[in-house]
Amino acid sequence: MPAAAAKLCIGLLCCALLYCFPIAAVADGSLPSSVQSVLKLRKIPAESLSVLVTDIESGKTIVKWNDDVPRNPASTMKLVTTLVALDELGPAYHWKTEIYGLSEIRDGRLDGDLLIKGYGDPFLVTERVWRMVRDLSQTGLHEIGGDLIIDDSYFDVGPYDAGQFDHQPLRAYNVAPNALLMNLKVVRYWFEPDPATKGVRVVIEPALENLQVENRLSLANGSCSGYQRGISITAADSFTKMILDGSFPSRCKNYAISRTALDHNAYAYGMFKSMWKEAGNSFEGTWRKGIAPTDRVPLISFPSKSLAEIITLINKHSNNVMARQLLYTLSAETFGAPGTEQGGREVISAWAARNLSGLDSLVLENGAGLSRAVRISARDFNKLLRFAWSQPYMPEFAASMPLSGLDGTLKSRFDDGTLTGQAHLKTGSLDDVSAIAGYLQARSGRRFAVTVLLNYKDAHRGPGEEVQTALLRYLNDL
Q1: What is the mean pLDDT of residues 122-140?
Q2: Residues in a beta bridge with 53
Q3: Which of 79, 151, 247, 314 has the fewest CB atoms below 10 angstroms from its CB?
């Protein structure tokens, strides 16, 4: 079913349910009748759903259903990681990226190596690398005669298989964390017809001199439709070469696909070198790994965006690798470098014990929710939400979540006016998993902490959203 038609059906179903079942108080341990009707219509066992809704001001339970059952929360797990990071590091926390000259600079020339040390900045994207290159040029350096040395030792990620989760190693959501993560390790391919050659013109952003792109695409008559517009992208030679194959429709204009490429350090080298040269500077060497000196002052120390800004990027757009960078950062800041995934899990477990008397149901893997093994109960999730609401950084935490019907992963949901702008909610979706968690302000002004976790076959294909919509509409009228 097309997305627009599916969305219309969901809206009509929810309106029909609310018309047939007027708003009424929910008995303890039961679900609103509109939610029950969705479950019955979609043949979903009520035992597969967990819900807990509490009134933030009074603490009163509004809806409670299977709230103590641990379930997979998918990407709503990012709220756990971002909340702990806010509490442990503070909203004004910044990462840094240091650049060292390993020999003297004379007349704008470094006759030796340049070293970049990463400290886990989750958002060192193209425009920010440009600013870093500009800042380096403003020191008077314009020619690099040696190599680029990359120090990514602040994190210890270990062996990583990008295709382990779903056999899609080129997808951006599968990128591994890295202390020198540049542009999320993603390349954007722009495609447009080239009638003169009867082929397809391809431009990549950012330009990476060390990435080979083999364009085997042909041009075919037809409308701009079909999966990936007929384009396949495969990796060769250890991700240093990308092969583009297939038939591209002639009526497509400026179509784009984003995929990962290279390994982290090769990507960082290619991006830095390309931008350094585009800025009118010269670079003569290649790259290798190394460790930053302890007896030198860096030429520049480039600051990241603040943690408050970073968690907004993570939660509104459900960015997996940025959430994972947070987990490693928590480890490094607490136990010292190198940061590890296990260390990050230990930080969160200790934090929960101190602040919430523990989260017994929590099974945390990578901090992003991209896992079949992660678990949390609606009861424990609600404890997190209520704790966050009482903290000084509550505005930053709440505002980091998608706003219903207006932005992020909720931009095209709850946008019919009834719930638009009424809720800050983090979404979660995996195969057979659909979840939301966050805050809703009802028409009356009452504020609720809301957690909905549905784990059932094909829950992610629409039924989960129908359940969530029915519940939120019910709450909005209380």
Answers
A1: 97
A2: 63, 450
A3: 247
